[in-house]
């Protein structure tokens, strides 16, 4: 009888924090995202998580701290060949097998982190709705669940589990337009502790690769433009270069809305060009088609239907369809 009473008392004690959590008022979805953004940028923490894709599971560990106004971070892949990324202020160093280590000037890692951790919430609010989805548990802690849904339906959405106490992201599901998951970031364990900052401060004295000094790249004047873009996507770079293997000239533009990005490539068609091709692997879509003597290819983190519409809206300067177009236009 005594064991039964002890078990009952234990069960009640475990349920009380969850009940109290359920009774607390939920902050607005946008407020939660701002709190998440602040926590991700300012706390000293270590997060172990897995990135789940259709055919793979990648375990990773991410450490972050803000010390004396400077960001320090360290991402390490926990399986396979040693790979890591180190951030020290506005310098990010990459260590990859088969490549010489290098450092670039940047304040954003190109690494498997939930993109929302490196996005501007205020900018996203113009093109996404932030929807509170209630409360749940993830990684053993109580979480507020928020959906980031596009207003135009022309891109993917995210479902986030945000730790009620620390406001760190415990889980992030990338969903297609049917609500099916394309990939998931799921925390396994985490700790918020100033000692993480003490560990990362040692990066101050680490001898990292010298910053790569790239010559300034003039913004090339391209012979084409895009007549339709999803609302909020803006050009962030453009380039003209030759493919390494074939030396075929290619013109390209990259676009981003602050959460997702894609690139358009235009080149002369050759004997290897197919009339139309569509491939989707996880979050990445590739759509290419022939337009006269040109091959137009769209590659990026957008749905296939959006990639197709962007590709088909490309017009060439001086052509019948593009002669009167003077600027790229976003969807209304």
Automatic annotation (TrEMBL):
Pfam short name (any one): MucB_RseB_C
Domain MucB/RseB C-terminal: 219-314
GO cellular component, one term: outer membrane-bounded periplasmic space
The keyword Signal is assigned to this record: yes
Coiled-coil region: none
A Gene Ontology BP annotation from the UniProt entry: regulation of polysaccharide biosynthetic process
GO terms for MF: antisigma factor binding
UniProt superkingdom: Bacteria
InterPro entries from the UniProt entry: MucB/RseB_C, MucB/RseB_C_sf, MucB/RseB_N, MucB_RseB
Domain MucB/RseB N-terminal positions: 28-196
Keywords: Periplasm, Signal
CDD domains: RseB (cd16327)
Signal peptide: 1-22
Subcellular location: Periplasm
Family assignment from sequence similarity: Belongs to the RseB family.
NCBIfam families (UniProt xref): PRK09455.1
Name this protein carries in UniProt: Sigma-E factor regulatory protein RseB
């Amino acid at each position: 009888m005594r064991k039964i009473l002890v078990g009952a008392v234990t069960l009640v004690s475990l349920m009380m924090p969850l009940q109290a959590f359920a009774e607390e008022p939920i902050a607005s979805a946008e407020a939660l995202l701002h709190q998440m953004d602040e926590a991700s940028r300012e706390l000293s923490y270590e997060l172990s998580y897995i990135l789940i894709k259709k055919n793979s599971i990648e375990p990773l560990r991410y450490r972050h701290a803000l010390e004396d106004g400077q960001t320090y971070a360290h991402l390490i892949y926990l399986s396979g060949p040693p790979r890591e990324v180190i951030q020290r202020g506005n310098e990010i160093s990459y260590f990859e097998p088969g490549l010489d280590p290098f450092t670039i000037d940047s304040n954003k890692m190109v690494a498997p982190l939930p993109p929302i951790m490196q996005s501007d919430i205020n900018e996203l609010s113009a093109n996404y709705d932030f929807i509170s989805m209630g409360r749940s548990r993830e990684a053993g802690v109580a979480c507020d669940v928020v959906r980031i849904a596009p207003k135009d339906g022309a891109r993917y959405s995210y479902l986030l589990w945000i730790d009620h106490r620390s406001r760190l992201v415990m889980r992030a599901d990338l969903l297609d337009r049917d609500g099916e998951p394309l990939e998931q970031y799921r925390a396994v364990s985490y700790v918020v502790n100033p000692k993480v900052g003490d560990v990362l401060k040692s990066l101050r004295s680490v001898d990292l690769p010298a910053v790569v000094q790239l010559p300034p790249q003039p913004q090339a004047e391209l012979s084409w433009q895009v007549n339709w873009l999803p609302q909020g996507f803006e050009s962030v770079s453009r380039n003209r270069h030759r493919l390494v293997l074939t030396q075929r000239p290619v013109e390209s533009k990259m676009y981003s809305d602050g959460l997702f990005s894609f690139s358009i490539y235009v080149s002369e068609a050759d004997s290897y060009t197919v009339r139309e091709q569509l491939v989707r692997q996880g979050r990445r879509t590739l759509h290419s088609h022939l337009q006269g003597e040109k091959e137009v290819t769209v590659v990026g983190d957008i749905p296939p239907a959006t990639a197709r519409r962007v590709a088909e809206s490309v017009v060439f300067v001086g052509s019948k369809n593009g002669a009167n177009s003077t600027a790229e236009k976003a969807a209304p």
